[in-house]
Write a structure and sequence with these properties.
Strand 11 (535-540), helix 14 (546-557) and strand 12 (562-567) form a beta-alpha-beta unit. Helix 3 (155-162) runs antiparallel to helix 4 (178-186) and helix 12 (476-490) runs antiparallel to helix 13. The chain has 16 helices and 18 strands. With 664 residues, the protein is an alpha/beta fold. Strands 1, 2, 3, 4, 5, 6, 7, 8, 9 and 10 form a 10-stranded antiparallel sheet that branches. The chain has a 6-stranded parallel sheet with strand order 15-12-11-16-17-18, with helices on both faces. The chain has a two-stranded antiparallel sheet with strand order 13-14. Helices cover 25% and strands 17% of the residues. The chain is globular. Bound molecules: CIS-heme D hydroxychlorin gamma-spirolactone. CIS-heme D hydroxychlorin gamma-spirolactone (HDD) binds at residues 66-69, 72, 106, 108, 125, 127, 140-142, 147, 152, 155, 215-216, 297, 330-332, 348, 351-352, 355-356, 359.
């Protein structure tokens, strides 16, 4: 058990043990079915304190959901650095390779409310709380390395634009509407982020299969006080992968909890979920050596120019015991830093440093939210802050001020040598202005860089995503404005395609971005792939032999795949359980599908499932005990990625491993 899980035990109540029911005051309750009445058919009595307490608690069970990132899913784990990073930072948890630092990670969608679906087209939040021996360090990032805006003062505008429209609260968890795209056309700094949002990055296959990014340029500071600029990355061991948009929309209907269930079940089964921490580091002296401003959060540092050094590994390995107490009450803040990690002057980051504590005050009901078990550090903490709503601590002593003589000046600030945090001693000079630096003005080069880096199928997905989103905008001027002010300045081919699809005016050709660089690391097709934990839906006719089922299961499970049998009803065939039916699951919920046919003919549902799997470019395997299958399948047996698993299982496995048969 890691140090944080141990700490949480102090507040953990085991409700699975035999116990007598009591009120919150500890009074044993003798009856919990009936309220206290004056006569069996009479009015309920005010005196019924048990009813009042139970009802009052229920009436107050909800807290405000997060204003963004409301839908989230949290897991515990730990982090270990591979080698000391003392040349860059004095952060203790990054200096000692023998140290396992407990972490809590919350993944989230951004726009949807807490009850919305898991796979809208959206950015994913990727927040990590490291419970270090020097206090909590929060890396509050996303699965995309850039952001929509360059200055935090615009955050409320961005969020108002993307959230459901205020007059009718439509649409839920979607950017495909007028106000969002109107914002984009009027605020072209979002152009680069829009490319990411329209890409497959916005519809991850799994929370275990997406990258994470700290987004901003931060600072690492070593013992000598030398500073380096740094960008943080999380690299998933399983590689980053996506679903396709049509599939995402169907999944949202078939299983709204697709991502959280995938994560919960994999952790429950003991499948470690691993991410490596990556750093891109540049010395402070190189601040002005890039063709963009390192303080601009709409820019990446291409990995080919500044390689990502993999410096440590995070393993997520324990689910929460209580969703509300842990995942809902966890409070992240980019300003929670430890000695050796510091900020840059990125104006987006600077504004975030205000917003996160502020929002917890209303969400968690006052200034003592750091005492909520999931938020409290695992190292000792002491100061003179007292009282306030939900104060849980009883602090002994007469004094609650600094300096004091009555208590020997305790608690006493620590010097930097003793571990006290010291802000980086940056020299800053300037006049007070409300302005944006000229060096932030290029909105289109990296949008083009992203597009240049996509493979053909990825580009096509982006063009189609744009056509979907703009097609959903009711206001023709919004479509025209986006095409003219944004897309046309990035890429003419994209503009022509989308204009045609959404019936908008094709703007006059202007000088589009001439940026010709590409960054292969941006294409998810270049990511590592693996068979581990891939899900396989095996559709069977009811008469398939037990031996065939066992053999099929073994064939795939030995590669770490997860096999489910699907038929008309839940039943067992010999020792093998058919646990799913065409009512409970669908091919959209699996990475790949196999059909096993006995003498009986294939069910119509199986044929429909196969047609959709084919459309979604999934590997399809088949095995036939008897008769012919080719005349019922909605595609040719010679099509790419359709394989006889009895004759050529290796080919099928290769297709599954490649994630999708993109060239089908
Ligand atoms: Fe934010 C939540 C990530 C810009 C204000 N943000 C929140 C969460 C993530 C991010 C992952 C969810 C935390 C959790 O799981 O509880 N936010 C980002 C990233 C940004 C960003 C990567 C840009 C690089 N955010 C941003 C700005 C502001 C905020 C510019 C305001 C100035 N974000 C908030 C917030 C939230 C939040 C309103 C809502 C709930 C919360 O903080 O705890 O304060």
């Amino acid at each position: 058990m890691n140090k944080k899980k141990e700490d949480l035990q102090k507040n953990t109540i085991d409700n699975t043990k035999k116990a007598k029911m009591t009120t919150n005051q500890g009074l044993p309750v003798s009856e919990d079915e009936f309220s206290l009445k004056a006569g069996e058919r009479g009015p309920t009595l005010m005196e019924d304190f048990h009813f009042r307490e139970k009802m009052t608690h229920f009436d107050h069970e909800r807290i405000p959901e997060r204003v963004v990132h409301a839908r989230g899913f949290g897991v515990h784990g730990e982090f270990q650095v591979y080698e000391s990073l003392e040349k860059y930072t004095k952060a203790d948890f990054l200096n000692d390779p023998s140290k396992k630092t407990p972490v809590f990670v919350r993944f989230s969608t951004v726009a949807g409310n807490r009850g919305s679906m898991d796979i809208p087209r959206d950015v994913r939040g990727f927040s990590t709380k490291f419970y270090t021996d020097e206090g909590n360090y929060d890396l509050v990032g996303n699965n995309m390395p850039v952001f929509f805006i360059q200055d935090a003062i615009k955050f409320p505008d961005l969020v108002h634009a993307v959230k459901p429209e205020p007059h009718n609260e439509i649409p839920q968890a979607a950017s495909a509407h007028d106000t969002f795209w109107d914002f984009v056309s009027q605020n072209t700094e979002s152009a680069h982020m829009i490319m990411w949002l329209m890409s497959d990055r916005a519809i991850p296959r799994s929370l275990r299969m997406m990258e994470g990014f700290g987004v901003h340029t931060f600072r690492l500071v070593n013992k000598e006080g030398k500073s380096h600029f740094v960008k943080f990355h999380w690299k998933p061991k399983l590689g980053a992968h996506q679903v396709v948009w049509d599939e995402a929309q169907l999944i949202n209907g078939k299983n709204i909890d697709f991502h959280r269930q995938d994560l919960w079940e994999n952790i429950d089964k003991g499948n470690a979920v691993e991410f490596e921490l990556g750093l891109q580091v540049i010395p402070e002296e190189d601040e002005f050596n890039m063709d963009f401003d390192v303080l601009d959060p709409t820019k990446i540092w291409p990995e080919e120019d500044v390689p990502v050094q993999l410096v440590g590994k995070m393993t997520l390995n324990q689910n929460v015991d209580d969703y509300f107490a842990e995942t809902e009450q966890v409070a992240f803040h980019p300003g929670h830093v430890v000695p050796g990690i510091d900020f840059s002057n990125d104006p987006l980051l600077q504004g975030r440093l205000f917003s996160y504590t502020d929002t917890q005050l209303i969400r968690l009901g006052g200034p003592n939210f750091h005492q909520i078990p999931i938020n409290r550090p695992v190292c000792p903490f002491a100061n003179n802050q007292r009282e306030g709503y939900n104060q849980m601590n009883i602090t002994k002593g007469q004094t609650s001020y600094h300096k004091n003589a009555l208590n020997d000046n305790q608690p006493e600030p620590a010097s930097p040598e003793e571990g006290g945090f010291e802000h980086y001693n940056e020299k800053v000079e300037g006049r007070k202005v409300r302005a944006r630096s000229e060096s932030f003005k290029d909105h289109f080069s990296q949008a083009k860089l992203f597009l240049n880096s996509m493979q053909d199928h990825e580009k096509q997905h982006m063009f189609d995503a744009l056509s979907f989103e703009l097609g959903k905008c009711k206001n023709m001027s919004v479509r025209n404005n986006v095409l003219r002010e944004v897309l046309n300045k990035i890429d003419r081919e994209m503009t022509e395609y989308v204009a045609d699809k959404v019936g908008a005016e094709l703007p006059e050709a202007v000088e589009e971005s001439t940026y010709s660089k590409s960054s292969p690391a941006l294409s998810m097709t270049n990511h590592p792939t693996s068979l581990e934990t891939r899900t396989l839906g095996v559709m069977i006719t009811p008469d398939v032999a037990e031996a065939t089922l066992k053999e099929t299961k073994d064939k795939f499970e030995k590669h770490g795949m997860d096999v489910s049998f699907i038929s008309d009803k839940i039943h067992s065939i010999g020792d093998v359980m058919v646990e799913e039916t065409f009512d409970t699951v669908h091919s959209v919920l699996f990475d790949a599908v196999v059909v096993l046919k006995g003498k009986e003919s294939l069910q119509p549902e199986a044929i429909e499932n196969l047609a959709i799997a084919f459309k979604h470019k999934k590997a399809i395997g088949y095995g036939v005990d008897e008769g012919d299958i080719s005349d019922v399948l909605p595609f040719s047996l010679d099509a790419k990625g359709v394989t006889d698993i009895e004759k050529n299982v290796d080919q099928f496995l290769e297709d599954v491993k490649a994630h999708r048969v993109w060239n089908r």
